[in-house]
Design goal:
The chain has helices at 7-16, 20-29, and strands spanning 2-4, 31-33, 40-52, 55-69, 72-83. It has 87 residues and is an alpha+beta fold. The protein has one domain (2-83). Strands 1-5-4-3-2 form a 5-stranded mixed beta sheet. It is globular, with a radius of gyration of 13 Å.
């Protein structure tokens, strides 16, 4: 299925510490999470092992929310959380 990454998603990705490649990866290989307003959510945890805003984090969790129109996935937004999650 074609994936169209909305400009809003790209802007939020840059602000929050992820990128277009990870957004695509989350959609294709992430696990399902609840979405609101009829949106679909997927998330994936990545090893991070570096500092962000002067604090060290082991991992980051990228959550992508999107809709499907005809045969096209259209992203709505992306969130990034930093911390440590169990397997």
């Amino acid at each position: 299925m074609e994936i169209k990454i909305d400009l809003h998603t790209i802007e939020r990705a840059e602000e929050r510490g992820t990128n277009e490649k990870e957004v695509n990866d989350v959609i294709n290989t992430g696990f399902s999470i609840p979405g609101k307003y009829g949106r679909i959510g997927k998330a994936k945890i990545y090893e991070f092992k570096q500092k962000r805003h002067d604090k060290y984090y082991e991992q980051k969790k990228v959550e992508v929310f999107y809709t499907i129109e005809k045969d096209v996935i259209i992203t709505v937004t992306v969130y990034v959380f930093y911390g440590k999650w169990e397997g």
